[in-house]
Write a structure and sequence with these properties.
Blueprint lengths: L2 E6 L7 E2 L2 E2 L5 H8 L3 E3 L9 H17 L4 E7 L1 H9 L12 H5 L5 E7 L8 H4 L8 H16 L6 H19 L17 H16 L3 H4 L2 H13 L10 E6 L3 H7 L4 H13 L14 E3 L36 E7 L28 H15 L2
Parallel strand pairs: 1-4, 1-5, 5-6, 6-7, 7-9, 8-9
Antiparallel strand pairs: 2-3
């Protein structure tokens, strides 16, 4: 049986820019566990509307099937997990998309559908990123990209200059999250990357600036409205199961007690964590599931658990699955922040520096255990 695995990135949606691959750290682990070469979706609208992202994923799955694949598994990180869930719910329709038999004809050839850190009930930080802070969205991406670029770059030329530039970006992000005005984004911020990478990066940032309705769609209000609409749709439908992996990181105060490794990156995490806090009883309780990496003192913050970007209670959703034998479930919780879980953390083997210093002390061993577990869902 010719199977494939499609990897779907989250918010910002790039699969590869220059030498930086969104899933570079985790694809080899997944291949080792499953024997299948994972294929990242070549491109998805980074901050464009959900329906366009789902449409691009649909076309990618169809392409895999036309190329002789008999079964396609889908693994989505962050918003990519939402894309995957909506794709395999025939109640979700989009402009120009397939309906009726065309909508479900490929369902029998879809394998496992896996969501990691997905904001299925929305995330409060999306409320904050609307309006005045929408201009900081490209800056957050840029800071994260350049951190990963420096960590993976084999060329040490200019590393001190790039490190200073990166620190300036961190400062600007921290100021914006603290509601202090940051200077406007400039294409010069891509300095320090090779010509082709720089041009790709600038085009990508321009697209984020021009098209970012996704931020509005990921608010808890908007996602709750979408989920209620789908639940009310009683016409003949088909809904595939989703396996959920949920990321949880420690509150900033816990990290303060243990000592801060990087004050600027910790400041960004503090700002992001605060804006991701839930209102009282906003989401439901967390289901029972096993842990990858034992969380220290988790009981102290279980009711408000999050990963710095998405509340843990939003990363899974209870739904009826009328045409599915298994139903969705939480496979595992993992102790790590939203970026740790795809290899954006400071180690030499798999990771690379990121914009967060969450204090989760994520490790290569935990990353391998997580993605081995994801692979085990695909190939038990």
């Amino acid at each position: 049986m010719e199977e494939s695995i499609v990897l779907v990135p989250g918010l910002f949606g790039f699969s590869r820019i220059g030498d930086i691959d969104y899933f570079a750290s985790v694809a080899p682990i997944l291949k080792e566990r499953t024997g299948i070469e994972p294929e990242p979706i070549p491109w998805t609208p980074p901050t464009g509307p959900l329906w366009r992202r789902v449409d691009h994923l649909y076309e990618r799955v169809l392409e895999e099937l036309k190329n002789g694949r008999t079964r396609v598994h889908i693994v989505g990180h962050s918003t990519g997990g939402v894309d995957a869930r909506l794709l395999v719910d025939s109640r979700y329709l989009w402009p120009g998309g397939p309906v009726g038999d065309r909508r479900v004809e490929f369902f029998d050839r879809i394998g496992k559908v896996i969501s990691l850190s997905g904001p299925h009930k929305g995330t409060p930080i999306a409320r904050r990123l609307r309006g005045a802070l929408e201009g900081v969205i490209p800056l957050v991406f840029l800071a994260s990209f350049l951190a990963k670029y420096d960590a993976q770059s084999a060329n040490g030329d200019g590393s001190v200059r790039r490190a200073m530039h990166r620190m300036e970006l961190y400062r600007r992000v921290a100021e914006a999250l603290a509601e202090r005005p940051a200077r406007p984004y400039s294409a010069e911020d891509a300095a320090g990357t090779p010509g082709d990478t720089s041009r790709q990066l600038v085009r990508f940032l321009d697209e984020i600036v021009e098209d970012h309705p996704l931020i509005h769609e990921l608010t808890p209000y908007a996602m709750n409205r979408l989920n209620r609409h789908l639940a009310r749709t009683t016409a003949a439908s088909r809904v595939r199961a989703v396996s959920y992996f949920v990321s949880v990181a420690p509150p900033p105060s816990q990290h303060l007690l243990e000592g801060i490794v990087d004050p600027l990156r910790h400041g960004i995490y503090v700002g992001s964590y605060e804006e991701t806090r839930l209102k009282p009883d906003e989401f439901g309780p967390l289901p029972e599931a096993r842990w990858i990496g034992d969380p220290p003192r988790f009981v102290e913050f279980a009711h408000t658990a999050q990963d710095g970007v998405v509340p843990a209670a939003s990363q899974t959703i209870d739904e009826d699955h009328p045409d599915d034998l298994e139903g969705g479930r939480v496979e595992s919780y993992v102790f790590g922040d939203h970026l740790d879980v795809v290899g954006h953390y400071p180690t030499k083997k798999h990771g690379g520096e990121t914009v967060f210093d969450s204090g989760a002390d994520f490790s290569d061993e935990r990353l391998e255990a997580l993605w081995q577990a994801i692979g085990a869902v695909i190939r038990p």
